[in-house]
Amino acid sequence: MVDMPNTPRVSLLVTDLDNTLWDWFEAWHSSFSAMLRRLSQLSEVPQRQLEREIQMVHRRRGTSEYSYLLNELPSLLRRNPHSQPLKVYDDAIHVLNRERLRSTKLYSGVLATLRELRRRKIPVVAYTESVAYWSEWRIRRTGLDGLIKVMYSSPDHDFPLGVSAHDLRTQPPDTYGLKVTTHKRVPPGILKPNTDVLKSILADFSVPPKGAVYVGDSLMKDVAMAQELGVYDVYAQYGASQDREGYDLLRRVSHWTQQDIERERELSAQPTITPSYVLSEGFSQLLSMFDFAEA
Ligand SMILES: [Mg+2]
């Protein structure tokens, strides 16, 4: 065993998913902007008008990944009083799905790092605020089913009256769900940096705060939460997207409140949260920052 002075010994990794393990923003932006362009062409509703209506639906549904979005946009409903916009503008949804499939990928080094942690018998727990359905889809798509022991996600969004999650499914049943990773839902309304979920993860694995590492790309949510509990906090700086081209589109259409957006802007301009560890290059830097050893 190589002695690593100043390298904390830890036995549990808790990680955020979006923009920490994969580039969610890139996948979202490339697929959503392509869908929006196509939808605007097909419907002849200006993009800005669609954006305003989309933001209202997303806020009402509390997510920016809402499967029935098109069916609830007033401009589209007015133009199609006797048919469902989702059917009429089916081609825009194809564009969205195709682009999402193409652009959902792990950051380099993630797979190798998670495999190394599995070799060392270190449990990896994921904690995301994205909804259950899309979190499972991304875990399957990126091949992480099983490399993550437990995933905590938000529950799925509400469905329109008379529609169930089952009705959304168009593929055979075994193409859904996770085979190995256990999937748990966070109670609705619990959002990072609330520490309840992280606290219960530590309790489940009987690990004290200084026996665990938490990594994420949001200073305001991930780093603040880990610091409050005294878990080793790691900032996935490579995942920060706030200054990237297209982030304004996300601000314009997402379910975030104006207050969230302002706070994130302020923090990005003048960080008041200083992370203890920073991954400037990539996820695999974790392996040299900490001594991951079985408890
Ligand atoms: Mg994230």
UniProtKB/TrEMBL annotation:
One Pfam family, short name: Hydrolase
Cited InterPro entries: HAD-like_hydrolase_sf, HAD-like_sf, HAD_sf
SUPFAM superfamilies in UniProt: HAD-like
Gene Ontology BP terms: DNA repair
CDD domains: HAD_like (cd01427)
Keywords, comma-separated and alphabetical: Hydrolase
Molecular function GO labels: phosphoglycolate phosphatase activity
PANTHER family the UniProt entry points to: PHOSPHOGLYCOLATE PHOSPHATASE
Protein name: Haloacid dehalogenase domain-containing protein hydrolase
Native species: Streptomyces microflavus DSM 40593
